Amino acid sequence: MALAAESQFHVLAVDDSLIDRKLIERLLKTSSFLVTTVDSGSKALKFLGLGEDHGSAASSSSEQLEAEVNMVITDYCMPEMTGYDLLKKIKESSALKNIPVVIMSSENVPARINRCLEDGAEEFLLKPVKLSDMNKLRPHILKGKCKDQQGKNNSNDDLSSSGSRDIITINASSNLNSTKRKAMDEGLSPGRKRAGFSRKNGNSLTVL
């Protein structure tokens, strides 16, 4: 049962190096992940339904629904669009921001690593990536799925609250109209109150 549950996690691996792509694909499949590989950041965005021109989301939506991506793992150094650029575009998208992103690089540059982690990357793995590195991925995927579910729940709560406010407004309006009709039936202006009197100390009257 555990193996079947893990196989549902789909990782999109992005690397311009064929050798590195084959390696990460083999490691992910050995760890029971479903894997899709692409060789550039632009192709990754197209697969995710975003696209560089932000206009291909509708055309790619059916493909995206058939194969939901639970994580993106990308090389840092790639032509045209770096792994950092890809990370930024994913995190700037309201539809994709909860997808965890892991960066890989053969260069150990602290400033680069810190920048990626500060801007939303879950992990920064140094190449060559090892099988033991795959064990770090599942907790991030589960956290991303929880965030996505919380976002959906919050949206549903907002809709429910909006519906409740509409009902309350309608009820309040009905009550106000009923009060006005009652006042008119009694021959009073809706904006005035009937005078009230309270007798105190014998003959003195106090107007309420």
Strand content: 15-25%
Helical proportion? 40-55%
CATH superfamily: Response regulator
The helix/strand class is alpha/beta
Instruction: Summarize the main sheet.
Output: 5 strands, parallel
CATH structural fold name: Rossmann fold
- CATH class call: Alpha Beta
Number of domains: 1
Please give the count of helices: 7
Q: What spatial form do the alpha-carbon principal axes imply?
A: elongated
What is the CATH architecture term?
A: 3-Layer(aba) Sandwich
What is the number of strand segments? 7
Mean pLDDT: 78
N- to C-terminal separation?
76 Å
Order of helices and strands: HEHEHHEHEHEHEE
Family: Belongs to the ARR family. Type-A subfamily.
GO biological process, one term: cytokinin-activated signaling pathway
Keywords: Cytokinin signaling pathway, Phosphoprotein, Transcription, Transcription regulation, Two-component regulatory system
InterPro entries: ARR-like (IPR045279), CheY-like_superfamily (IPR011006), Sig_transdc_resp-reg_receiver (IPR001789)
